[in-house]
Amino acid sequence: MSVERHIAGMLQQIARQQDIVEIAPQGSTRKAAALAHVAEQFGYTYGMAYRTGFKNSLVQVRMYRNPRPDARVREAATIAAHPQAGNGGSVPGLERGSLKPLPEAVAAVAVLKDLITFDVMALYVADRSQKAKVYLACAVLTVLLLVDRSPVEAVASGGAVALLCTVAFKVGAIRRGKIAQRLTDAGFLAVRDEQGGQRFLPPGQQLPARTDPFAA
Known about the structure:
Elements lengths: L2 H13 L4 E7 L2 H13 L2 E9 L5 E8 L3 H13 L24 H15 L7 H18 L5 H35 L3 E4 L5 E4 L15
Antiparallel strand pairs: 1-3, 2-3, 4-5
Helix pairs in contact: 2-4, 4-6, 5-6
């Protein structure tokens, strides 16, 4: 799907003043963040992101309509400045015909990219039970390898897989920790959702699952 079709599809939802806008699944957090930035200029705010598609290869972002007066003012200004957005005209914050942010939008898109990346990485951040399942699978693999390999080879192979999993867990945790620090430095507040997962919200905003996610 072309960039224009992605933008047009999103703006059609916005034109209907839907409370929730689903951005078409993207192949990278960078592209998803660029589209989320456009939605923000039309009075929406970031809600959540998650993996979808074949082998969770795509990023899905959900935006929520922001009822605050400043969001409505921003929406009106954007409509006036970009009347042909979605019809081949200019789009707020992006170079025409692409998802590359303009210089003045680079910082805002980077923050959205961090928010999206932090959320989608939750799928790969293992808790104790998940780690236990992974290491149990490694132990089962070792036992299966004992059927047609020597004990030394079986243990070495199972141990290598376990080591790779351990490194992956550690790298993921370190990367997510760095993103969390950047979001904290940007003024976002860490909260816990209903499943106990960590999320980041700007001051004064609640989780979108609440009745009013924008209540003070």
